[in-house]
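#struct-help
A.M.: can someone run this one for me? Single chain, 145 residues.
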Amino acid sequence: MAKLIKNHWARLIVLTAALYQIAAALEGFFWPKIFWDFLTTNLDPAVRPVPVLQCINLVLGILAFAWEWPMPLLSFAKTAMHRSIEARLAVYPLASLSALLLYQGTNPGIYYMIGMGVYFWAYSEGEVVCPEPWALPRRRRAGTV
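D.P.: on it. Structure tokens below:
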């Protein structure tokens, strides 16, 4: 029976969240709205007249996409940041919070939280992210130390 590689599963979830976050940020430029505007209007200056929250979501979405799908142009693969689950668990809550503040970004915020839960599960079981993107971890040979 095959074993589930949880960091690959979390990577797919966060890739989905990042693409949704980019789309939500672009949509937020045309229809700016804070998700929590039914409770208070104090956060409205974050989306209009200057689209600060949309820009933050766009940058974090592109960063998460580049982090999870290392493209040859960015050469982000094989770095310590790419292999670090701890760094992901530190950055993705910020991406989730910024996505949850934007009305169009509630789904990516939830997907980020699910991805963080799966990354934490992988981290707690001792999984490592391979230096090569989408590679499988090598098995230890029997009889070697």
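A.M.: thanks! The mean pLDDT is 88.
D.P.: also worth noting: The two ends are 25 Å apart (CA to CA).
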